[in-house]
Amino acid sequence: MNGWNSLRDIIAVVSGANSHGSIQRPSMFDPAGEPAALVLDITWLLVGICGAIGVVVLAIIAFSLARCRAIPGDDREPAQVYGSNPIELAWTVIPLLIVFVLFMVSARGIFELERTTPPEGAIEVTVVGHRWWWEFDYGDLGVITAGELHVPYDEGKPTDIYLTLESADVAHSFWVPQLGPKMDVIPDRINHLWLQANRPGTFVGQCAEYCGNQHANMLITVVVEPRKDFEKWLSNQQRPAVEDPSVAEGRRLFLRTSCINCHTVRGTVANGTFAPDLTHLMSRNVIGSGVVRNTHDNLREWVWDPQNIKPGCEMPSMKLTREEVDLVCDYLETLK
Amino acid sequence: MSVLQPPAGPRTTEGPVPFLSRLHEWVATTDHKKLGVMYVTSGIIFLIIAGLEATMMRWQLAWPGQDVVGPEEFNRLFTMHGTTMVFFVGMPVLLGSANFLIPLMIGARDLAFPRLNAFGFWLFLFGGLLLYFSYFGGQGLYGMGSAPDVGWFAYAPLTERTFSRGHSTDYWILGIFVAGIGSTATGINMIATILGMRCRGMSLMKMPLFVWIMLVDCFLIVIALPPLAAAQILLLFDRQLGAHFFDAQAGGSALLWQNLFWFFGHPEVYILILPAFAFVSEIIPVFSRKVIFGYPLMVAATVAIGFISLGVWVHHMFAVGLSPLINVIFMGSTMLVGVPTGIKMFNWVATMVGGRIRLQTPMLFSLGFLCQFLLGGLTGIFLATVPFDWQVSDSYFVVGHFHYVLFGGLLFAILAAIYYWFPKVTGRMMSERIGTWQFWLLIIGFNLTFGPMHVSGMLGMPRRIYTYQLDRGWELWNLLSSIGVIFQLLAFALLVWNLLRSVFKGREAGDDPWDAWTLEWSTTSPPPAYNFDEEPVVHSRRPLWDLKHPDDPDWRYE
C-alpha cells in the first residue's frame, strides 16, 4: 500500500472534503440511543469532577513553583512543617465523599445498562464471534447472515436491540460505540448486550478484544433502516438462494470446489458453517467482515486470493485460474 | 554522631585491573551495589529495545493503510513491547534501585541473603534473554523465528495450541516464569533485609519513606507473582501435556485465566508504580528543602494501597459480562484505591508549598511525574466508573491512561531517580544542561504521543489493531501520536549520551552533592564494598539533617 496516497486521502478527510455522509463515525460523543447517551452523561459528570480536582492540584503546583523557589545566595533552610492533622484529615475525607457520590451515580448506571431480559419489543439477534468475522442469527425469523446486522426502525420510536453473544473460538468483544457500550464475547459464556438506535443510518464498530492476526479487520456494520425496507430485506433473506441458469457453469464449479466445506448456500449441497453464509451474498455491502466494499472487482480479487486483502484470514486461495474465478464470481453475483 | 563520618578507606585505585578479572568480579559478585547497577543497566537496555518496538508500531499506525509491518509482525511487536516493559524494564529497575539503595539507607552492609540476590538477578536476565531468543527459536529449530503474538496478558484460549502454533507462547510462558522466580526470591530477600538488618535507632517509623514503600512493594511481589507462575504452569500443561484448564472447547474456562492473570496483573501495576512513589518521596523533600509533609499518613496510605490493590483485579474484566453486583463491588474498591493515592499526591504538593524549590534535573523529572501521574490517576477514576469503562475498555483511551501512569508516572520518576542517585553510584554528576534538554523534549514528545490516544479511544479506536479504516475520524490523532515519537527518540538519545559521557567525564560529585538527608549520602561516592566503616546510629528519619543542624534536630519533632 503506498503511504503518500493514503496521506493525501487523510488530508482530504480531515479537511472534510471527502465525507461519505451516510456512514457515521464511531464516536461515543455522538450517541444514537439511550445506553450510549447514559454513558455520555456519566462521562460529562466525570469530566467535571476530575477536571476540577486536576485544575486545583495543578494550580497549587504552579503556585509553589512561582512563589516557593530557592533564592540564589540565600542558603537558609525554610521552616520545616512536619504535617497537620486537620489538613490531612480534610484531604482524606473530601476525596472519600467525592468517590462516594461517583460510586452511587455509576452503580445506578450499571443496573440500568446491564440487562438480563430483553426490553419489550426489542429485536433479538444471536451474535457469534468467529476469527475474524461476525455471524448474525435471527433465530425464529430463520435468517443467518454475516458482517452486517440489519435492524428495523419505526419513525419516532427508538429500536431496542438485544444481542446474545457467543464465541466460536477465542475471546472477542462487540463494540458499536454510538449504539451503546461494548460487551466481551467469550467462548465458555453466553453474554447479553442491550443497544438502542433512535435514528436510521449505518453505524460502524469493530472487535475490541485482541483475537489474533486479523483482529484489526473484524469490523461490524449495523444498518438501521425503516421498517418497510427491513421487512423487504428480511423476506429476501428468508428465501433460498436464487438459481440462475445463465451461470450454471460457475455454480457447478463452486459446488465442486472446497468452498462448500466452509460456506453455506441454502438450497444447494453447500452447507458448511465454518465461514459466512453466502445465500444472499449480494445483499451485503462489504466482504471480508468489512475489509473492502462488495464490488465487482473486489469480489474477484477476494476469490482469487483473500490473503492479498486480509493477510492471515482463514480463507485460502483456491488456486483457480482467472477464468474460473470469473465463472465462480458470476455465479456469486446472482446470489442477491 | 561520629559514626556518620564517611569511611576513610581508599578507593580501589591500585593500577589498572585486567579485563577478565574485572568481568569475573561482576559476574561472580554478590555485592548488592554491583547487582543493583546490573539490574538497572539491563533494564535500560531492555527499555531501548522495547522503545524501538513501540517506534515501529507508531510508524505503522501513523496513517491508515500503512504497510511498514504486516499483521503478524505488528502483533508480535505489541506483545513484546508490553511484556518487556512490564517484566524486563519496570521490574529490574525497581529491584535494582531497591538493591542498591536499601542497605545504604538502613545502614546495612548488604542484603540478608547476598547469594540469593545474585541468583535472583541472573534468573531475571536469563528469563529476558529466553523471551528474546523466541525471535530465533519460536518456530522450532528451522526457518524463520517468531516472537510471541498473544498480547502481554495472553488471554486464553488464544494461547492454546489450536490458535497459537509453534513455540512462541511457550517462550513467553517460560521467560516470564523464570524471571518471576527471580523476582519473588529478591522480594523475600528485601523483606528480610528491611525487617532484620536496620541499623541501631532505626525503628520502622524512622525508616526513610523509600524503604517503607519498597517494603510494601516487596510484600506485593511475594503475594502476586506466585498466582501468575501457577497460571503459567497450568497453561504449559495445556500446551505440552494436553490438559484443558483454559481450553474452552474441551470444557476449560477462558475466564479462569483472566481471573488468575489479573489477580497478579493488578497488584503488578501497583508493584510498578509504588517505586515511583518511593523515588519522588525522597527527591521532592530534598529539592524543596523541606521535610516530607505528613510522614505517618504517607506510610498509612502506602499500606492501604498495598491492601486495596489486592482486591481490585476485576476492574480489568468489567466488560466480560459479570453480574452487576460483582461489577459494583469492584468499582467501589477501585475508586477507593484512589483515596490513598490522592493523599500521597496532596502530601507531595504540600511538601513543596512553603519550601525553597531548586529546579535541578531530579526535581524537574519529579514535577513531570507529579503532573502526568495526576492526569493518569484522574483518567483512572474515569475507567473505574463501570459504564464509562464499558464504552472505552480495550480502546486507545486505556492505552493513553496506562502510559500516563507508567510512562508519565513511573518512567519520569525513574529518570528523576537516575539523575538523583547517579552521583552516588558512579561518583560523578550527570550533565544538567543535557538533562534539561532531555526533560523538555520528553515532556513534549510524551504528551504529544499519549494525549491524543485518549481522543482516538473515545472516537472508537480499539487497541492492538495493526491498521484502521479511513474516515473513522482517527487519522489526525494517530498522526499526532506518531509525530510525538520523534521527540521521544531524541530525548532518549540524549539520555544515553548523557549517561555514557558522565560515567567517564562527569564532574566529580563528592559524597553529598544534593545536600540530602538520608544515610546513603553519608558514605563515599561510589560507596566502598562494605558501605560504612562502622554501623551508623540514627535518631530520626533524617540522620544527616540532625548532623547538619545539631541545634534543631528532627528527633525533637517526630
**Overall average pLDDT of chain B:** 92
User: Number of helical segments of chain A?
Assistant: 9
Low-confidence parts of chain B, pLDDT < 50 over ≥5 residues? Answer: none
Q: How far is the N terminus from the C terminus of chain B? A: 19 Å
The shape of chain A, in one word, is: elongated
Termini of chain A, distance in Å? 31 Å
Q: How many separate helices of chain B? A: 15
The beta-strand count of chain B equals 0
Name the chain pair with the biggest interface and residue counts per chain.
A-B, 101 and 101 residues
CATH structural fold name of the largest domain in chain A? Immunoglobulin-like
User: What's the CATH C level of chain B?
Assistant: Mainly Alpha
Structural class of chain B: mainly alpha
CATH superfamily of chain B: Cytochrome c oxidase-like, subunit I domain
Question: H/E order of the elements of chain B?
Answer: HHHHHHHHHHHHHHH
Low-confidence stretches of chain A: 12-21
Q: How would you write the strand order of the largest sheet of chain A?
A: 3-2-1-5-8
Structure write-up:
The complex is a heterodimer of chains A (336) and B (558). With 336 residues, chain A is of the alpha+beta class. Chain A has two domains: 20-58 and 85-226, Sandwich (Immunoglobulin-like), CATH 2.60.40; 245-332, Sandwich (Immunoglobulin-like), CATH 2.60.40. Helices cover 37% and strands 18% of the residues of chain A. Chain A contains nine helices and twelve strands. In chain A, helix 2 packs antiparallel against helix 3, helix 5 crosses helix 9 and helix 7 packs across helix 9. The model of chain A is unreliable at 12-21 (pLDDT under 50). Chain B is mostly helical and 558 residues long. The longest helix of chain B has 35 residues, at 71-105. The model of chain B has no long low-confidence stretch (mean pLDDT 92).
